[in-house]
Amino acid sequence: MTTSGSPLPFLVNFYAPQNASADARGRKLNNILAWSDGRLEWSHDYIQILFPLPERSPINPSAPAINEQTFSAFRSRPEWQDRLRDSLVRMLNFYGFVLRQRQSPGQAENNGWEVRPGPNFSQASPNWLKRFDHNHLRITRIIRSCRVLGLEDEVKAFYVALIRVAEENQGVISQKSLMFWQRAAERPLYLAPEDEADEGQGKDFLYRFEEKRKSVAQDAINDTQV
Fold first, then answer.
1. Distance, C-alpha 102 to centroid of its chain
2. What is the crossing angle of helices 68-76 and 78-95, to 10°?
3. Across residues 122-137, what is the average pLDDT?
4. Sign of the dihedral defined by the CA atoms of residues 113, 119, 120, 121, in that order
5. Around 61, how many Cα atoms within 13 Å sit in the side-chain half-sphere?
6. Which member of 1, 26, 78, 83 has the lowest number of beta carbons within 10 Å of its beta carbon?
7. Which pLDDT band, with edges at 50, 70 and 90, does 146 fall under?
8. Cα(213)–Cα(130) distance, integer angstroms
9. Which residues contact 49 (CB under 8 A, 6 or more apart)?
10. Could you tell me the CA-to-CA distances from 22 to 12, 29, 99 in Å, in that order?
11. Bridge partners, 98 (sequence order)
C-alpha cells in the first residue's frame, strides 16, 4: 500500500481494512483479536503493535511508534479507526467491559460512548483489579494510544468506567496507577503520562495538533459572543 509513490508506515498497513499486513512474526490483526483471554494475558509482544505510542517502548524498542504520517492516516480515515475500535473492544472484553454508543448521542458526554461492566466482569476483573499489575501499564497504553489515533471519546468513557470501579473498590488499585490513567486520559496529546513537566515540547506534530485544536475552540467561543 502506497500513497503518492511512498510506502505507508507499517501501522497503517497492519490496520488496513483490506489486504492488511502481518507483523514480524507473521500475525495479522484478525489473528490476534481471535486469541483466547489466556493468550492475551501471557503474551507480551502484541500490545505495542495493537496500541502503539508516539514514544518508543523501553520493553520492546523495536515496536513501531506513531509518527506524523500514521497519526494523519488514522485521524482522517474512519475505517482505520473502526479497526482500532475492534482492538479496543477486544481488550475491553478481556478486562470485563463492554463498549456501546447510544443510537442518538446528541450532546451526550463522550459523544454518547459508554463503557460498562459486561457479563464476564466477575471472571475477567481479577486480571487487573488489584493494587498493581502489568495490565495497569497496558491500560495506560491503550488509553493514550487510542486518544492519539482518534478514539478519544471511547477511551474517555473507558477511563470513567475504571474510576467508577476504583471508587467501588476503595484502596484496591494503587494511587500511582490511577494517576497514570488520569494523565493518559486528560493530558494534552503531546505530553506522555510519564513526563513530569509540561514544557510544550513532546512530539512536534502532536503539539501542533493541540495548538490548532485550542485555536479552533477559541474561535468557536468568540463566534458565540458576537
1. 21
2. 90
3. 97
4. positive
5. 1
6. 26
7. very high
8. 37
9. 11, 14, 23, 32, 63, 64
10. 11, 7, 27
11. 116
